[in-house]
Design brief:
By secondary structure, the chain is mostly helical. The chain contains 5 helices and 3 strands. α2 packs across α3 and α3 runs antiparallel to α4.
Length: 149
C-alpha cells in the first residue's frame, strides 16, 4: 500500500516540479536573475528549436508521467506486469532530462559569462525521477517475492 501511495503522490509532485524554478540564470553579475522552470524553458524552446522542444517535452513531461500512470495501472491490477520493462526505460529517459539540466549549469558556469544558481525545483524534479525509479524497482522486487512464496 505504501508504494501505491508514493506513486500516486507523484501525480501531484511532478506538475509542481514542472512549474517550480529549476534554476536562476542571469547574464553577467550586473543583471538580475531570471527563474527558469521546465515549463518556461519549454515555452522558449518552442519558439526557437521545435525538435529540441519535442525531445525535452518527452523527457521532462511525457516519459515520467507515463511511467507514473503505467505503474499505477499495474499496482491497481488494471494493466499487465509485462509492461514493467518498458516503464523502467521511461524512468531512465526521464533521468536524461536531469542530466541535461546539470550539464547546462556546468557549461554556463564554466564559460563565466552568466550566473546560474540552482532552484528548489531542480531538487524536487530530481527527487521525483529518483523516487519513481525506486518505486518501480521496489514494486518489481515485491512482486517477485510474492510470486516465489
Amino acid at each position: 500500500m505504501t508504494l501505491k501511495l508514493a506513486n500516486l503522490a507523484l501525480f501531484i509532485l511532478f506538475p509542481v516540479a514542472w512549474f517550480a524554478p529549476l534554476l536562476h540564470a542571469g547574464l553577467l553579475p550586473l543583471f538580475g536573475l531570471k527563474e527558469i522552470s521546465v515549463i518556461s524553458g519549454l515555452q522558449s524552446l518552442w519558439g526557437s528549436d521545435v525538435i529540441l522542444a519535442l525531445l525535452v517535452t518527452f523527457f521532462a513531461i511525457f516519459a515520467p508521467y507515463l511511467k507514473v500512470i503505467g505503474t499505477a495501472l499495474i499496482q491497481f491490477r488494471l494493466a499487465s506486469p509485462r509492461i514493467l520493462p518498458a516503464l523502467h526505460i521511461l524512468g531512465k529517459l526521464a533521468m536524461a532530462d536531469v542530466f541535461l539540466i546539470a550539464l547546462y549549469i556546468v557549461v554556463v558556469k564554466g564559460v563565466g559569462l552568466g550566473r546560474v544558481e540552482t532552484g528548489w525545483g531542480l531538487y524536487l524534479f530530481s527527487a521525483c525521477v529518483l523516487a519513481q525509479i525506486a518505486i518501480g524497482f521496489l514494486y518489481d522486487r515485491q512482486r517477485k517475492q510474492t510470486k516465489a512464496s
